[in-house]
């Protein structure tokens, strides 16, 4: 029998990187880690933050993972996602604004992971094809294609951490007559930049974050008209001239769309902002989350341990107010279970715990209650680990302030600033108003402040 | 031990449908068939001919298979693809034109398959995840996700027929600076119609069939300018005003592309016509074709039997002059091997046979030689089966006439007509010139001829 445990991490995005960091932190404390292999199908880590111009499938024929677009700026304050053990001050050495663009956030997560020297643990361009579990051996066999050498390898592991996320496979429902629409029809997952929406009449189908942010991006880039179609309820922001919400769509006839309130409009481009699927094509259904995108998917003890087979854990499987620091809390806890620092309760105790939290989740109706629910969920994890505690209730207040700022003005909320709950450092206002800033590069972002340039 | 053999067919496109038809034909002759299960990830059969408005991934999260576009008309004469045992006369009951639109061809292949009553053998919305081979059991285990019920099933088979094709996973190379191009960037696989290219400056990267046909479609639909960038050699057709060929691309800077001859041009839309990959993510590399797209991929005896494991066969794995009737010849031969009607030669004999054909393939340099090579290849298969023989040399002549017609006029070749080599029936000219026909529906196509309508 092999002495050392073997652990597979599937995916090297923010969650997988958190797991690698968690094990590196234990090693620094003198712990002996199991053998860890992280499989990543992309050529670099960063997951969603690894921007690709490609859509559909990549140069290896694998589904493109990232839904990132050129013009993306954080749509929540960075103070709500800050790593408690690697702060923005640690990385940038000076205050920055609260809503950085994608390259800046990529630099931050990359910087922390590089500091731990864990990149060698990642097998890039490796696509996991299938995960088998053997009851007798109490082991997983992971079948992986090395996309560069074109070899298939099979390795056995004691535990598997699924860190592939659930914002990579779009939900693409049908709409009557959409096959007759002659313009561009894409899902938000395939959206790479709003520049080409200039002068266009854009229809965004959906009423959540994708529609909101692609909508304001399109508006910023000069779209003639931005129409957002909601199903359950309008977003209700104070939209500027040229942006409006309409109810559910009835169907298309060529360029014309009809809505349930009887409105008929013509469009040049349609973007489905219809969300994502929990889709793990490498997992048999016995190991596969079956859940809508919510804050407490069923079947996961403490939001991470697969109840039916606790050798399998998920990171980041929840809908997310909190992101990077929640992945950390989850990764630290999963690491502690694997290292034996934390004890896994019995199946009955786990089910009981999950039941109690599911009840709390179902009771959380308002936004404030839901954010608080996730803060409490994270606190429960942090309390079980040595991940540095931070003021989660203050982060809840930042989230609510962010919500209020968006209500006040959906076009200017990214100019607001918040203090770090970890370091107390107050963010600085970006040198250029977001609405006037057309250069999203890290170089431009980190430039010494100078008078605003309007393009 | 199980008495009856079990056969899995993966994919219910034209190749998989040919296999189903082949077994049905044997049954009509009194043969006892093995148990056959055909897995198809789409909701209907037809493969590439099953048009979907979706791109990227489908409503199940699976990569979209079809590269079909609304406006596609056959780009080769139907007389070259006619089933020898189900003719166009059999299906339509009257002569039709030589280059029908997609709905008409779909109707034809669907009509034949329906006639055999084999649809019940197809498990639709079933995605094959992994195929394992056990040397001891001499059996394959196929792991499949039922995408509707969300169950994972594992079934064992004696033989597996891979009929998923190789025009579903695009080859998406990188181009310097393409991530800065602000317009639409898609691969031909994601192209769904040329209407939106009206008034656009369109760059098509590639010098083969996709660039040619999307180019003339764009021209037909009123593109301002169609530029096709070739790597090895120009297509060399007599392009109309507004269409031109340029050599290889150096890179992009925003909307501007530079070419190796020093030309610099601005574009609104880029379509990669860069071909497809042999990509079978459900096959380990021991079972996986490793080949460029050519007329005789290595490792396949008679173009179908996997040399290293003859329990695995591929249909339609070649580059294709011939299509539907070649799939038939392959399917009939594979069926005969499975039924024991044909004998599989020894590994050495198979390797020797493949070597000889590979030499012939490499000697075929001109188009005429290559078409003749594929005709001879098909004849070799038909001679080994009871598939109805037909005049393959006459089909070669039709292919060469088609080539000449295209050279004469790339915009009008679809108005030409040819006789069926099976029935002798002469095709009729479509009631409307292709360039003036903007309605691709089967209803419009089958209308009683009337004076030409120009839209």
Topology of this protein?
Two copies of one chain form a homodimer.
Chain A: E1 6-10, H1 14-28, E2 35-39, H2 88-92, H3 102-115, E3 122-123, E4 126-134, E5 139-146, E6 151-157, E7 159-162, E8 184-187, E9 201-205, H4 209-220, E10 225-229, E11 243-246, E12 249-253, E13 256-259, E14 264-266, E15 269-272, E16 300-301, E17 305-306, E18 312-314, H5 324-339, H6 347-363, H7 367-383, H8 392-408, H9 442-446
Parallel strand pairs in A: 1-2, 1-7, 2-3, 7-18, 8-15, 9-10, 9-15, 10-11
Antiparallel strand pairs in A: 4-5, 5-6, 12-13, 13-14, 16-17
Helix pairs in contact in A: 1-5, 5-7, 6-7, 7-8
Q: What would you say about this model in short?
A:
Two copies of one chain form a homodimer. By secondary structure, chain A is of the alpha/beta class.
What is the average of the pLDDT values of chain A? Answer: 96
Q: Biggest interface: chains and residue counts? A: A-B, 51 and 51 residues
Gross geometry of chain A: globular
Question: Structural class per helix/strand content of chain A?
Answer: alpha/beta
- For the record, what CATH class of the largest domain in chain A applies? Alpha Beta
**Mind telling me the C-alpha Rg of chain A?**
22 Å
Strand content of chain A: 15-25%
What oligomerization state is this entry in? homodimer
The figure for the number of domains of chain A is 2
CATH superfamily of the largest domain in chain A: FAD/NAD(P)-binding domain
Helix share bin of chain A: 25-40%
Could you give the count of β-strands of chain A? 18
- So how many helices of chain A? 9
What's the CATH topology name of the largest domain in chain A? FAD/NAD(P)-binding domain
- By CATH, the architecture of the largest domain in chain A is named 3-Layer(bba) Sandwich
Order of helices and strands of chain A: EHEHHEEEEEEEHEEEEEEEEEHHHHH
**How is the biggest beta sheet of chain A arranged?**
5 strands, parallel
- The parts of chain A where pLDDT drops under 50 for at least 5 residues are none
Lateral arrangement of strands in the main beta sheet of chain A: 3-2-1-7-18
What is the CA–CA distance across the termini of chain A?
Answer: 66 Å
């Amino acid at each position: 029998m092999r002495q050392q445990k073997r652990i597979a991490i599937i995916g090297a995005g923010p969650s997988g990187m958190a797991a690698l960091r968690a094990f590196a932190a234990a090693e620094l404390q003198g712990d002996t880690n199991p053998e860890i292999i992280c499989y990543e199908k992309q050529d670099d880590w960063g997951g969603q933050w690894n921007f690709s111009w490609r859509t559909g499938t990549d140069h290896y024929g694998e589904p493109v993972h990232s839904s990132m677009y050129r013009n993306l700026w954080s749509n929540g304050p960075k103070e709500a996602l800050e790593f408690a053990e690697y702060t923005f001050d640690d990385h940038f050495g000076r205050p920055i604004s609260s809503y950085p663009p994608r390259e800046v956030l990529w630099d931050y997560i990359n910087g922390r992971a590089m500091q731990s020297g864990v990149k060698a643990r990642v097998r890039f361009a490796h696509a996991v094809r299938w995960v088998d579990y053997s009851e007798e051996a109490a082991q997983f066999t992971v079948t992986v294609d090395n996309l560069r050498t074109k070899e298939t390898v099979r390795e056995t592991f004691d535990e598997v951490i699924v860190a592939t996320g659930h914002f990579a496979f779009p939900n693409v429902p049908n709409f009557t007559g959409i096959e007759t629409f002659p313009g561009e029809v894409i899902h938000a997952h395939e959206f790479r930049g709003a520049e080409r929406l200039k002068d266009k009449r854009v229809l965004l189908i959906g009423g959540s974050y994708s529609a909101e942010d692609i909508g304001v991006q399109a508006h910023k880039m000069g779209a003639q008209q931005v129409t957002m179609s909601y199903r359950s309820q309008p977003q209700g922001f104070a939209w500027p001239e040229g942006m409006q919400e309409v109810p559910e769509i009835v169907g298309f006839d060529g360029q014309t769309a009809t809505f349930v309130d009887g409105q008929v409009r013509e469009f040049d481009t349609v973007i489905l902002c219809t969300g994502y699927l929990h889709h793990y094509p490498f997992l048999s259904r016995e190991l596969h989350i079956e859940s809508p995108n919510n804050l407490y998917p069923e079947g996961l003890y403490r939001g991470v341990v697969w109840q039916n087979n606790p050798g399998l854990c998920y990171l980041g499987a929840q809908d997310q107010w909190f992101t990077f620091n929640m992945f950390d809390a989850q990764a630290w806890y999963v690491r502690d279970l694997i290292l034996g620092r934390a004890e896994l309760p019995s199946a009955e105790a786990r089910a009981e715990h999950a039941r109690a939290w599911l009840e709390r989740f179902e009771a959380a109706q308002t936004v404030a209650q839901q954010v608080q629910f996730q803060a409490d969920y994270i606190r429960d994890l942090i309390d079980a680990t040595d991940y540095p505690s931070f003021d989660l209730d203050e982060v809840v207040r930042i989230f609510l302030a962010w919500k209020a700022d968006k209500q006040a003005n959906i076009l200017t909320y990214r100019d607001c600033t918040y203090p770090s709950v970890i370091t107390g450092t107050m963010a600085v206002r970006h040198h250029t108003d977001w609405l006037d800033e057309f250069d999203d590069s890290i170089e431009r972002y980190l430039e010494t402040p100078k008078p605003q340039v309007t393009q």
